[in-house]
Structures are given as structure tokens and as C-alpha cells.
N-acetylglucosamine-6-phosphate deacetylase
Amino acid sequence: MAAQASGHVLTPQGFVRGRLAHEQGRIVAIEGTPVSEAEARSGELPLILPGFIDCHVHGGGGRDTMEGGDAAATIARMHARHGTTSMLATTMTAPLAEIQAALAALGPVCRERVPGAARVLGVHLEGPYINPGKLGAQPDFAKPASLAEVHALHALAPIRLITLAPELPGNLELIAELRAAGFRVQIGHTAGSYEDGVAALERGAGGFTHLFNAMTGLHHRKPGMAGAALAHAQYAELIPDLLHVHPGAVRVALRAIPCLFCVTDSTAAAGMPDGDYQLGRQTVTKCMGGVRLADGTLAGSTLTMDQALRNLVLELGLPLADASRRVSTHAADYLGLEDRGRLAVGAWADFVVVDPRELQLQRVVAEGEEVDLEDV
């Protein structure tokens, strides 16, 4: 017998007042009467939205992806309790042996979803193919990219996304080879110029890693990598914690990049009290709502995707349907996933239930499984 959720369901066509039914992990029916977003937000019925998709997760719940072992399972459970139903486990720049160990631990988690957890769709390899002059919070183990090395790492765990700096020797030429081999490439941790960004996009790079952060900024006579993204990108990540990027710059990006999508760039400190945590080889400190290295450099975030949604709607004023696409649908489309990030018959039963005004989570369902929220 199919399980159900009732309320205002956000379908690709808009809200309907009715019910969503799911069975064996898939949506089997959505029935109801169309209503406007204003009606849905002003009523008393809960809102049913697509589960969140986070393409940039370093950690959470006190654990870091680079630890290996059961860290990824803990991270995926913690983020599921905040509405993330699919995610990419994200690595740090490190010696090759440490990256290999992290991916070896991630392989089984990618093959089978952990109960009560977000689906780990694969790996976001953020480094080591980045510019040593734009490390941000990454340790100083940047190195040239190699297709053979990427294939060897991919054999340990499926790599979905690779961040690289296109201005480094050989990287620009490698982008087309990586794309031909089925890897999606993002531009990030880069000191490259506007021209480097355009050239990378022309060769198949698909987007930008945490837009504005760890890249050359926009100046009207020297538009930089941020300018290349704003002028030409269809997709880009952005961290909407309102700390990494000023709300005004977020608004610029929303107007310029059609499918801008949100990520958390979350660390082990997400969901944890203030204190010291690990981010790869680095010790980071959570305090005053952020995470920093000892020198004050921002080092990932404590953001969760439910808070990202609230920031977009309640702080920046986006319509809820638009905000939902930016925490779900656009990321799914970017990764080529037609059965996630949307509520439609045949899609995975990944959804969240929130109250209509404050958008606080009431339920999370991942591939048809009810997630226990009591630890939120």
C-alpha cells in the first residue's frame, strides 16, 4: 500500500492542494487542485517540497569526509535531518594517499544508501588540481591534474564533479578530455582571468565552485573569473549563508546566472556547538556563526540546506518556487538526474514537509524512507 503526504505539493507546474503518494521509494501519484504560491503560503496546510540536493559537503555532525571510516555515514545522516536527500561527498586538497583512503571509504556509501541518511551520489573532488595561490582553506598540496589519476580515483568511488583551476599548465586542455570521459568539471580555487574562464567554458567546464570565493573578483576593466561566471555561466554554486557572499552580490548572481544553485560547503562543525573541528588536515574553529582558520580565513560553513532555503525566501525575498529550484532542481539538472530534485510521478520519493510561513522542517523522506528528525 502506498504511503502518503498531504498538503500543498510543489510540482514542476506549481503548487497543488492535495496529496503525494509513494511506494517502493518512488512517487506513484500526485493529486490535487492547483493553487497559487500566495494561497499555499497563507494557508494552514504544510508545504511539500522536493528534497534538497547539496553538491558540496565536506562534513557535519563532528565528522569530516577525509577521515574515512564511517564518517560519511554520519555526515549523510546529519544532513538528511536538515532536509538534504542527495549529496556529493567533497574531498580536500591533500597528499594522494589521503585522497585515495577517503575515496576507498566512500565507495560503499555511494553504492548503497545508509538508512536514515541522504543518498551519497558520488564525490566532488575539490582539489588537488587547484591554484596554490588561491587555496582558501585548502592545505598546500595542489598539483597538476592527470586524466590517469582521475580514472584511478574514480575506480575507488564514483567522481561526479571535479574542481580545477583552468589557468594552470595543462588544465585547460584536460577539461575536454575529462568531459569526454564523463566527468563534470567546475572552475574554482583559481587566480585565472576572465579570458581563462571563457576558454574553460568553451572547452566544456560546466560551472563554478562557490561563486565569488577563492577566485579573481569582478572589476569593470578586469572582470576576472567572477565576471566570466556572471557573463557566461548557466550554472554555478553559491553558499547562501549570507557570510561567504554579501546579499547584494547574491542578488547580482541570481539575476545573471539562470540556474544558480545553492550548496553548503559545510564542515564537521555543521550541526555542532562552537569549538575546534577538522577540515581535512586543517583545524578550524566554529564561532560567531562561521568557521575559520586561525588566521581568520573562512573555512567552509556551518550551513544546512533547510537554512539555505529560509535565507533565500525569508531574508532575500525569493519566491518559494524559485528558491526550491535553487536548492533542489537546478543541482539535479546540472548532474543529469531527471528523477531527483522534483516532485513528479516516477521520480524518487525525496521530499520535505515544512510549515508555510517560517519554512521549518516537519518531515523528511529520502527514497521513501521517513528520516528521524529528533536530533535536529
The CA atoms of residues 81 and 373 lie 5 Å apart. The chain has two domains: 3-48+355-370, 51-341. The domain at 51-341 is CATH 3.20.20.140 (TIM Barrel).
